[in-house]
């Protein structure tokens, strides 16, 4: 059997439609040029922008293409917005590093998580007392555990306090409804390579002009209507547009299929290792994500052993640099360090199938047995 790739929350496999769109766009001109070649490039960008705008129910000018989630977070998490002066930044206790470190505030105040990994709304209420124009950054779903956050409820509290909500929808896009209507957020940002598009491109999507940054993060030639300078990556944007179209057409059925596969794998893991700990199992989770630990088996050793056996998964405590570091979200959930060190994540994507799930259980059993003997 070919290698089994179960790490789609890190990067999903490039969809054929996205690959085809990128290849077709590689010879496009500079989208700022007024000649025919430039107009053709501009048309590709605006087509992709229109797809996103229509799906999120906003005008196209409220969609700004970026290089991905990290740039988007740095762009939108600023005190000075067009219609707001935000004085306090609150972030969920399990936010991605691009949010925790990628902002323009002096410091961020983390809001606690409960034992299931969901934002503690009572702690949020307490932190909103006497706060002037807060900005809350809260992911729609956690990248490690897959736990879906109560963004709608949190947004209502923040709006009552006169604040703004920025939602990291990177893991949610194509997996659950992360529209403005569903989340109640004011700003969303997404990343292409999580849905089978190319790496290095994403978008910040604004519900209205008042929540756009007062000043561009990247200043230069005035591209993206002055909101993001730099020559647009036409091929990558075209690939994002194609992947997004496919997700809109097939995502619901895909998630039903992957949810069943995830549940099958989770049942197999529990049958193999009754001592296994599934993180966030009592909370709503993304259909494609399973985070668990096999106590006594260090994650980095197990990930390496599975890799040798042809299976790609990740450690729940792996940071973006690839180095093993303590998991902030598991710590915020109160998971003991000796369990957190054993955390693994399986994240499924569009190419995965049931035979892979069956094979994984067999391979995991073999690797576990070998490690326990040692």
UniProtKB/TrEMBL annotation:
<comment type="function">
    <text>Catalyzes the removal of elemental sulfur atoms from cysteine to produce alanine. Seems to participate in the biosynthesis of the nitrogenase metalloclusters by providing the inorganic sulfur required for the Fe-S core formation.</text>
</comment>
<keyword id="KW-0411">Iron-sulfur</keyword>
<dbReference type="GO" id="GO:0031071">
    <property type="term" value="F:cysteine desulfurase activity"/>
</dbReference>
<dbReference type="InterPro" id="IPR015422">
    <property type="entry name" value="PyrdxlP-dep_Trfase_small"/>
</dbReference>
<feature type="domain" description="Aminotransferase class V">
    <location>
        <begin position="4"/>
        <end position="354"/>
    </location>
</feature>
<keyword id="KW-0479">Metal-binding</keyword>
<protein>
    <recommendedName>
        <fullName>Cysteine desulfurase</fullName>
    </recommendedName>
</protein>
<keyword id="KW-0808">Transferase</keyword>
<dbReference type="InterPro" id="IPR016454">
    <property type="entry name" value="Cysteine_dSase"/>
</dbReference>
<dbReference type="InterPro" id="IPR015421">
    <property type="entry name" value="PyrdxlP-dep_Trfase_major"/>
</dbReference>
<dbReference type="GO" id="GO:0051536">
    <property type="term" value="F:iron-sulfur cluster binding"/>
</dbReference>
<comment type="similarity">
    <text>Belongs to the class-V pyridoxal-phosphate-dependent aminotransferase family. NifS/IscS subfamily.</text>
</comment>
<dbReference type="InterPro" id="IPR000192">
    <property type="entry name" value="Aminotrans_V_dom"/>
</dbReference>
<keyword id="KW-0408">Iron</keyword>
<dbReference type="InterPro" id="IPR015424">
    <property type="entry name" value="PyrdxlP-dep_Trfase"/>
</dbReference>
<dbReference type="GO" id="GO:0046872">
    <property type="term" value="F:metal ion binding"/>
</dbReference>
<keyword id="KW-0663">Pyridoxal phosphate</keyword>
<dbReference type="Pfam" id="PF00266">
    <property type="entry name" value="Aminotran_5"/>
</dbReference>
